[in-house]
Amino acid sequence: MKKSNILFIALMLLGSSLVVSCGERSNETERDGEEEIVEDRREERASPLRTAEGTVNNREIRVQYGAPSVKNRTIWGDIAPYDEVWRTGANEATHVEFKEEVQVEGKSLPAGKYSIFTIPKQQGPWTVIFNSEWDLEHGHFQYKEENDVLRVQVSPQWEDDSQEQLVIKVEEPGIVIRWEKLRLPIKVS
Question: What does UniProt give as the signal peptide span (predicted)?
């Protein structure tokens, strides 16, 4: 092959790889108070990936979760069954990071990253679980109780207004989960 043909082919391959890599991914980041919305257009997710971060009681908290929508479905007792471990979001496990040791509902939790799971109850307090296996691709399907670092009881609050898409915020009293008519405040100090 002639040098000019080889050069032409090399330039064509380089040009096409640049076009593909530049056009393949478009990330947008929005700031809405303490919530960051990260959108990857290559993968349109039914439950978008969200990040919430902030400081409560002088403790830095960062939460990442998949945000499912109600979509006219029965959530409590169906999508999130009662008395079973729920991944507290969609897709991969929801996880939280604490830069230093914290008290969660009055119980000590060392600094680190943890997945968050909940056990919804039809009546009474819910169990909130902090598990050492924080990077689980399939949420509760990979959950192992032996990796639980902390379990606390939290009383759910039921509101009149409905929250279509799950939202987790870092706000007083610590981490607040809202979805459908649920408000689940988890105290962090």
Answer: 1-22
